[in-house]
Write a structure and sequence with these properties.
Diaminopimelate Epimerase, Chain A, domain 1, 17-stranded mixed beta sheet, globular
């Protein structure tokens, strides 16, 4: 089999880490599930919660294509979105503000100081309030459970049980456990596609903030949020149906770059 050399960049957003490839030349095959899975493997590849391709887009500054660690192209990733914005800024594709296309539509973003990215998320309208949980799509599907003592949660096993239950096992869902203390949130997440707990999840933190806004009867404002990998914040406004003007803000940090032969 012919070898190819891939130049890659590694970024992380609050501990959510990604392999990013500048694919404007379209030389990298995004349909190669086995290759993407290998690159994301922490023992036999580069390692990451996911892989992103930055490609050309006719209607915006660039296109974001996101792949889970299992190699399959996936729904929106909020922390990935912030990291690819930082990467696009490194490439010189914009100065301070940008607009890019993702699988769930156009996103606005602002590059702030100290590797902080402010990313506008999609409006959220259909929110299911169930028995002890909320379920919604913030670019990816999220199940949110508000808990009293998050330290007592077994994120891997409790999250996996929900992700693979009768309702969700075929398509899957991400699962978030949220504790609210004095207007601040702590969020732990089990991510489908990674099939494990991750140190942070942008779309999950967004869903958790919206669920907390419903519980706290908060129509607008900001929630400071602590994930295992770092601190983020979500701003939002209540709309007639659901929430809009939702922004996810937090760190998006360059880690290293290199070449790998595959």
């Amino acid at each position: 089999m012919k070898q190819m050399r891939v130049h890659f960049y590694k970024y992380q957003g609050a501990g959510n880490d990604f392999v990013i490839i500048d694919n404007r030349d379209k030389l990298f095959d995004g349909n190669n599930v086995e290759l993407i899975e290998k690159l994301c493997d922490r023992r036999f590849g580069i390692g990451g919660d996911g892989l992103m391709l930055l490609e050309e887009d006719e209607s915006s500054d660039f296109l974001m294509r996101y792949f889970n660690a299992d190699g399959r192209e996936a729904s929106m990733c909020g922390n990935g979105g912030r990291c690819i914005v930082a990467f696009a800024h490194r490439l010189g594709l914009f100065n301070q503000s940008t607009q890019f296309m993702a699988v769930d539509g156009l996103h606005d973003a602002i590059m702030c100081d100290d590797a902080i990215v402010d990313l506008k998320m999609i409006d959220v309208e259909d929110i299911e309030a169930g028995q002890g949980f909320y379920f919604m799509d913030t670019g990816s599907p999220h199940y949110v459970r508000i808990v009293n003592d998050i330290s007592s949660i077994d994120v891997y096993n409790d999250g996996r049980a929900i992700r693979y239950n009768e309702r969700f096992k075929e398509v899957g869902t991400n699962v978030n456990f949220v504790q609210i203390v004095d207007g601040a949130l702590t969020v732990y997440t089990y991510e489908r596609g990674v099939e494990d707990e991750t140190l942070a999840c942008g779309t999950g933190i967004t869903a958790s903030a919206i669920a907390a806004a419903i519980v706290e009867e908060k129509n607008e404002g900001t929630f400071p949020i602590k994930a295992k990998g770092g601190d983020l914040e979500v701003r939002f406004q209540k709309a007639d149906e659901g929430f809009n003007n939702i922004w996810l803000k937090g760190p998006a940090t360059f880690v290293f770059e290199g070449d790998i032969e595959v």
